[in-house]
Write a structure and sequence with these properties.
heterodimer; A: mainly alpha; ABC transporter involved in vitamin B12 uptake, BtuC; 14 helices; 77% helix; globular; B: alpha/beta; 4-stranded antiparallel sheet; 12 strands; Iron ABC transporter permease (chain A); ABC_BtuC-like (chain A)
């Protein structure tokens, strides 16, 4: 790829991803057991509200689409930042314990203290953040190297996973409630979920844009970044906490949705390169598009069964990811 | 060599130890505006010393003075405007043009939130490209350049930092012989033109002697000799520093080391 090709691709990506996101949102709003035409959606959103379809759009589909946008954006931003600061293109929010921490907290809330199930989002969020911070400090030894963070992450993930399974075995009669959450989905999410998550998600996304420059410097390696005046340890810690905040927010409303944080930034990187000024915004838009589109597919394609979006994402994401990797090998 | 000007870098009673690399009671001074080379056998602590001088590693005890100021008192960004370094790591992100890589050298002068270089930044970037002879490659992707041109582009990034002191960790290792001489001559010319103080770790002793004004020899983490390279390099020096039996001669004023194989 030469400079001109790269710049063309960047421009295309910046133009196309917002359009694709709009299309995905329109798809999510119009398709369903009651089809509603785009024109009708328009008049519902910006004008009169026919009884039934108005309720379907305003109370069911619109909040779900918006939650999909936030969840996808947060997961993709989290993955994009982590892949850079961990110097590992295969890093995703799972590697810093976000999934395991959030999962354990959610299982405890749902199977041990079901009477407090309204605390689930907050609990999952805190669990995700705590696990990430714990892993970071376990990896600390006069600086936390990405390799040590990955190793500490593997150990802590195994430990938290074991605890999660332990709770599920001991309280096996209540496991049914937690299964949909573990496979990740947006079913039944509404305005109050959005209200809970939106402040964290928007704050996280705004902060992510501020992390662009330090994240770019970290791509040069720790020594070079430090020699260019960056406070490497502080920057890496803050970016990891930010990534945990973003992924924790997504996990708290949508459960354990995998692959978005891994696949989207990686695919974007293969297409337009790793410069965070472009990688981050395009990943955010791409992640949002992917989740909204896949969630709509998951709820309409297999009617009357509604699949959790996490399952479909893994099913579509994994082969796509492999295809991208193969393709790059052929095209050096 | 006696310099009347204050030294660019001084070390006093420096001790350091990490992962088996040790420096013992280092006392040295780097002359201002000159090219200094640090030589010594593998594992003698050359690169470690360079890391300590650059602030990448901090000593257990003793002090490093940069322009007479304690290195520990320097805020990171101020240090990055005073001293730049080409580390051994060859890591450069994908899909970067040479100019974009060199532009990273301006980071210590830019606010963390701005992305567009100012006119002054562009001037420094152009000058760094010109000093290293990479202007013609400025818009090419870094990874499409040859090893020698990549190394010049990396050096251009450190020059864009517009510092008084440039440290280089083995700038010629892994380059072919022609590019080795090209890079060394280029550094000499840059030192001559800008007056920048250069300190480099070198493996090739003849190159070190031929191109540098001052030589510091390390052995097992201690300074064993320091002074003008041509005065230092002799049979006794090779034996003392490298445990090597060899003699030194000069062919057309270029040093040649002839090993005594028996």
């Amino acid at each position: 790829m030469n400079k001109k090709q790269r710049n063309t691709r960047r421009l295309m990506a910046l133009i196309l991803t917002p359009l694709l996101l709009l299309l995905a949102c329109l798809y999510g709003l119009t398709y369903g057991s009651v089809p509603i035409s785009p024109g009708e959606v328009w008049s519902i959103l910006f004008g009169s509200r026919p009884e039934t379809s108005g309720l379907i759009i305003m109370d069911l589909r619109l909040p779900r689409v918006l939650i999909g946008v936030l969840v996808g954006a947060c997961l993709a931003a989290s993955g994009a930042l982590l892949q850079g600061v961990m110097a590992n293109p295969l890093a995703d929010p799972g590697i810093i314990g976000v999934s395991a921490g959030g999962g354990l907290a959610a299982v405890i809330t749902m199977v041990v203290l079901p009477q407090y199930s309204y605390l689930l989002p907050a609990g999952a969020f805190l669990g995700a953040l705590l696990a990430a911070i714990m892993i970071y400090f376990l990896a600390w030894d006069s600086g936390a190297s990405p390799m040590k963070i990955v190793l500490a992450g593997v150990a802590i993930n195994a430990l938290l996973g074991a605890a999660m399974n332990g709770f599920m075995v001991v309280f096996s009669d209540r496991v049914q409630a937690v299964l949909p959450w573990l496979s990740g989905g947006l079913s039944g999410r509404s305005w109050h979920h959005l209200g809970f998550a939106a402040p964290y998600a928007l704050t996280g996304l705004a902060l992510a844009l501020l992390a662009i420059k330090p994240a770019n410097l970290l791509l040069l390696g720790d020594d070079s970044a430090r020699l260019l005046g960056l406070r490497v340890e502080a920057s890496r810690f803050l970016i990891i906490v930010l990534a945990a905040l973003l992924a924790g927010t997504a996990v708290s409303i949508a459960g354990l949705i995998g692959f978005v944080g891994l696949v989207v930034p990686h695919a974007v990187r293969l297409l337009i390169g790793g410069d965070y000024r472009f990688l981050l915004p395009v990943s955010i838009l791409g992640g949002a598009t992917l989740v909204v589109f896949t969630d709509t597919a998951a709820r309409t394609w297999f009617d009357p069964i509604e699949l959790p979006v996490g399952i479909l994402l893994a099913g579509v994401g994994a082969p796509f990811f492999l295809w991208l990797l193969r393709r790059r090998k052929l095209m050096p | 060599m006696s310099t009347t000007a204050a030294p660019a870098i001084e070390c006093r009673c420096l001790h350091f130890g990490h992962n088996g690399f040790r420096l013992k009671d280092i006392l040295l001074s780097v002359p201002l505006g000159k090219i200094t080379t640090i030589v010594g056998p593998n594992g003698s602590g050359k690169s470690t010393l360079l890391r300590v001088l650059s602030g990448l590693a901090s000593p257990y005890s003793g002090e490093v003075l940069v322009h007479g100021e304690d290195l520990r008192r320097f805020p990171r960004r101020k240090l990055a405007r005073t001293l730049s370094m080409l580390p051994q790591s060859k890591l450069v992100p994908d899909n970067l043009t040479v100019r974009e890589l060199v532009a990273y050298g301006r980071s210590p002068y830019q606010s963390p939130w701005s992305y567009r270089p100012y006119t002054a930044d562009i001037d420094h970037i152009n000058r760094a490209l010109q000093l290293t002879g990479t202007t013609a490659h400025a818009d090419r992707m870094f990874h499409t350049l040859s090893g020698g041109e990549q190394q010049k582009a990396r050096i251009a990034m450190t020059l864009a930092q517009n510092t008084d002191i440039l440290l280089l960790d083995e700038p010629t290792t892994f380059l072919d012989i022609a590019h080795q001489f090209e890079v060394m001559s280029m550094l000499k010319a840059i030192n001559h033109e800008t007056g920048i103080t250069i300190v480099m770790v070198l493996h090739d002793l003849p190159q070190a002697v031929a191109f540098c004004d001052h030589m510091i020899a390390l052995k097992r983490g201690a300074v064993v000799a320091a002074g003008p390279p041509r005065a230092l390099l002799d049979t006794e020096f090779l034996h003392q520093v490298y445990d090597l039996n060899a003699s030194v001669t000069y062919v057309e004023n270029y040093p040649v080391i002839i090993p005594n194989l028996n």
